[in-house]
UniProtKB/TrEMBL annotation:
Residues 1-13 have a biased composition (Polar residues). This is TIGR02678 family protein. InterPro entries: CHP02678 (IPR013494). Residues 1-20 are annotated as: Disordered.
Length: 410
């Protein structure tokens, strides 16, 4: 979950209710932001989830359409994005082949018992033979193929579904040949792949696949509430939970009306997991009131966030001096040429370069602008318009970044 941080106050629910209490919020945030919670790694949070299982299960099922799995050793929330975004990919994966090998690694582990040991060479040979059966050719003597398998294996280890007993997969990726790794299968391996109500081949697209999951969630909808209403609520709350900002113009028409007319209900429900909201002209903003949390927060600790805040301050100063300093589109976004953006970054460097990292000081204006645009796109604060301009979304202008000038008074 990616979330904007904005300082604000909060109130505790009355009457000792389970939903909305500190314990409920802690458990809900862990479920939303981790692949799963295991008893071995975090016994305290696992205890909270087990203690509040009923209210957590019902809240996520009714309001977001997520299923909650709880076993003796693991708690997992089966999350589905309301809208797929580029930043939702697996960090370190560079191509579709990386994701394919990750998936077939899970396929291989599905056939292994808990604690069963095997060699990397056995695993990759089985995957190669299976793929040959469906006319996909993999050659582990090729460096590129091994380089795609290595990050997949690394991610499987990070998820603790694959345990390395001896050896290192990066040696195999670099050298191939006789390099090998001894692995052990973990019981967690059987909880990564989602169970679908029908064969994947029956869905012709990702949207159709998501609709299949939605239908399975709606089987218990009563006569008092229509399936279309539930689908809309699920889509809206999923996006608001997982995405940093969703502007009114980014919703479908029915979803936008729902957000605008059901604002009080939405804010009340999302407050149960600790989020606080405010309505602005361009949309509903949800923020996290604390400086730390389970989710990824903006501003991030990366230096590029400092540049984004400094740019916000520069834009606000320019607009304050001349409200027509920049063109605006019909959605209220600023339209800034790339040359003007680079010029602002260079002026900021001239004034405040001493506060910048060495890497940012040495980058050309074009490279620095590209890095900044990618950061803004990740947080839905702006986007490249074309090869000559960028659109700055209103969310960025809620910030005012300044460098404090100081002198040594000693």
């Amino acid at each position: 979950m990616k979330r904007i941080h904005q300082a604000s106050t909060s109130t505790e629910p009355s009457g000792g209710e389970t939903i909305g209490t500190d314990e409920f919020r802690t458990a809900a945030q862990a479920l939303l932001n981790r692949p799963w919670v295991t008893k071995a790694d975090d016994p305290e949070v696992f205890r909270l989830i087990k203690m509040h299982y009923g209210p957590l299960r019902d809240w996520f099922y009714n309001h977001v359409g997520y299923g909650l799995i709880l076993t003796r050793h693991l708690a997992k929330l089966e999350k589905i994005p309301g809208s797929f975004q580029p930043w939702m990919g697996i960090e370190g994966f560079q191509s579709s082949r990386d994701y394919g090998f990750f998936t077939y690694g899970l396929w291989y582990l599905e056939g292994k018992g808990n604690g069963e040991q095997f060699l990397l060479s056995e695993m990759v040979d089985s995957i190669r033979e299976h793929l040959l059966g469906i006319e996909i050719h993999v050659d582990w003597t090729l460096y590129d193929h091994r380089q795609s398998m290595a990050p997949a294996l690394k991610k499987l280890r990070q998820l603790q579904v694959l345990v390395a007993i001896e050896g290192e997969e990066w040696e195999w990726a670099r050298e191939g040949g006789d390099s090998n790794v001894l692995y052990e299968s973990s019981p967690l391996a059987h909880y990564v792949l989602r169970r679908f109500p029908r064969e994947l081949a029956a869905s012709g697209s990702v949207d159709a696949l998501i609709e299949t999951l939605a239908e399975s969630r709606l089987e218990q909808v009563g006569d008092e509430e229509g399936a279309d209403v539930v689908r809309r609520r699920h889509r809206v709350l999923r996006r608001l939970l997982l995405e940093p900002i969703v502007y009114d113009w980014q919703w479908e028409e029915e979803e936008r009306r729902y957000v605008q007319t059901q604002r009080s209900f939405i804010l009340r429900q999302l407050s149960h997991v600790g989020l606080e909201g405010s309505r602005f002209r361009e949309g509903l903003y949800l923020s996290w009131p604390e400086l730390t949390g389970e989710m990824a927060l903006f501003p991030t600790s990366a230096a590029i966030s400092d540049l984004a805040l400094a740019l916000a301050g520069e834009l606000r100063r320019r607009i304050g001096a001349d409200p027509r300093a920049f063109d605006r589109d019909d959605r209220g976004n600023l339209v800034v040429s790339l040359s003007e953006l680079e010029g602002m970054l260079m002026r900021l460097k001239d004034r405040h370069g001493a506060y910048w990292t060495k890497d940012h000081r040495e980058k050309t204006s074009a490279v620095l602008a590209e890095e900044l645009i990618e950061h803004l796109e990740m947080w839905n604060l702006g986007a490249r318009d074309d090869t000559a301009s960028v659109r700055i979304y209103p969310g960025l202008l809620l910030w005012q970044g300044e460098y404090d000038d100081w002198k040594d008074e000693a």
